C-alpha cells in the first residue's frame, strides 16, 4: 500500500480464499493490493506496509480528521493501528486452513498525537503461537523513534470452516 494510492480496494476476502493460503501469504496479499484491504483501514490509511513471519510494519499519518473533542488524535486511531498490527503479526504465523480472533488487548497511551506528529510507524510482533492461543505486542513510534503507544494481545487460534 502506498501513501498516495487512492485506488486501494476495500472489502472482505471470502472465507474459502482465506482458508486456501498460509497466513503470511494472505497478509502480504493485502499489503500488495492483490487482496482487498479490510474496510477499517480506510480510517487510518496505512502505507509502506511489510510482513515477515511473526512481524508486520505499517506507516500512517494522524490528521485533523482523527481528532477527539479535547484537541488531539483520538485513542481509537492508535487502537486500530495497534490491534491491526498485532492481529496481522499473529496471522502471518497461521498455517493454511487456520485463523485467529482477538480475545483481549491492552493499550497504553504514552504521548499524544496531533496533526503535526507526521508519519508514525506501527510495528507488531508475535510473542508466542500455539495450537489454540497466540500472544503479540505492538508499538507506535514517531519519526524520531519516540514511543507514542504500545499494546499487548491474546488471540484464539482455530481451524477455519471447510467451505
CATH topology: Thiol Ester Dehydrase, Chain A
Per DSSP E runs of 2 or more residues, the count of β-strands stands at: 6
Q: Calculate the mean pLDDT score and round it.
A: 94
Helix count, per DSSP?
A: 4
Dominant shape = globular
Q: How many structural domains? A: 1
Question: In a nutshell, what does this entry contain?
Answer:
This protein is α+β, with helices and mostly antiparallel strands and 163 residues long. The chain contains 4 helices and 6 strands, in the order αααββαββββ.
Structural summary, described in words:
- By secondary structure, the chain is of the alpha+beta class.
- The protein has one domain (15-159): Hotdog Thioesterase (Thiol Ester Dehydrase, Chain A).
- Helix content is 22%, strand content 34%.
- It is built from four helices and six strands.
- It has a six-stranded antiparallel sheet with strand order 1-2-4-5-6-3, with helices on one face.
- The protein is globular, with a radius of gyration of 15 Å.
- It starts with 14 loop residues before the first helix and ends with a strand.
- The model is unreliable at 1-6 (pLDDT under 50).
SSE layout:
Elements: H1 15-19, H2 23-32, H3 41-44, E1 47-52, E2 55-60, H4 75-91, E3 98-109, E4 120-129, E5 133-141, E6 147-159
Q: Which structural traits does this protein have?
A:
single chain, 163 residues, alpha+beta, Thiol Ester Dehydrase, Chain A, 6-stranded antiparallel β-sheet, 4 helices, 6 strands, globular
